[in-house]
Amino acid sequence: MKITTVGIDLAKAVFQIHAVDERGKTVMRKQLKRDQVAAFFANLPPCLIGMEACGSAHHWARKLVGFGHTVRLMAPQFVKPYVKTNKNDVADAEAICEAVARPNMRFVPIKNIEQQSVLSLHRVRQGFVRARTAQANQIRGLLGEFGLIIPQGIAHLAKRVPELIEDVSNELTGAFRLLVQRLMEHLKELDRQVAEIEGQIKAWHHASEVSRKLEKIPGIGPITASALVASLGDAKSFDNGRQLAAWLGLVPRQHSSGGKPTLLGISKRGDSYLRTLLIHGARSVIFRAQQKVAKNGWLHKLLERRNPNVAAVALANKNARVVWAVLANNREFRADYTPTIVAV
Fold first, then answer.
1. How many CB atoms lie within 10 A of CB 100?
2. Which of 33, 192, 335, 344 has the fewest beta carbons closer than 10 A?
3. C-alpha 113 chain-centroid distance
């Protein structure tokens, strides 16, 4: 009995194993406790191991690669079609084992510890930003109930709310004034947490040569550059720039039939956080471009015939392709770069 391919259904406590031989015949179905997994695979001859890219997947992938195995991570939506019966751990492990052996399967690059650490900073920052926005909206909503309207934007809260609290001419009670003051203190604490984490991200960015390369691209700053470097890992895992743009959900969806191509809006697949950063960065470039007197170049021509929101997505798509070219070819960004056309 020689095991060649193994599918693992990851869990918090109990892991389901499904193994097949070189002919694809099932040779093992086994449940393992968490503390048994490392010892089991350390004694197993090197083989191909498939897992879904979910919680703790990158940790186990690094550990099993250290034992000499070949580990492949897959997005759960690509594994789902291979589940033959009702969903359970045994069926999931079998589906993973079958999916990982498909020649056209798409795999997720395995992240190292440093990449995961930087992405953790980004996720926590994202959570604090959402909490800060929610807190600002709550303050604005509570004051709106008393007919006190604050303009949109967090910056207006710091200036207007203290004035309203001190204003004795309005009908706010003492208890409500204290409540709003407490909410403002919480808002300031969230803002401080965001600034502190952004400082840590920027410190990592300045220490990373690859991340500093991406910062030179218009529309990409330290936050976006560090997130891209930590998420992509080896850019050569993508065949070309368009594949990276598709992975980020910046290409049109297709609904074609009968040989008639039909393109819809962008697919919005992949990491929404990276896609949002790229599009917001593109918006800033468009805003600056509209302030210039000289109206020439690719972006201005695009703005003449398309809505600014469409142009922002198109520029984000272009930046994603430029990011791939910079990372995959290990070169510096040059705004005046012209590709060399080889005559056949």
1. 26
2. 344
3. 17
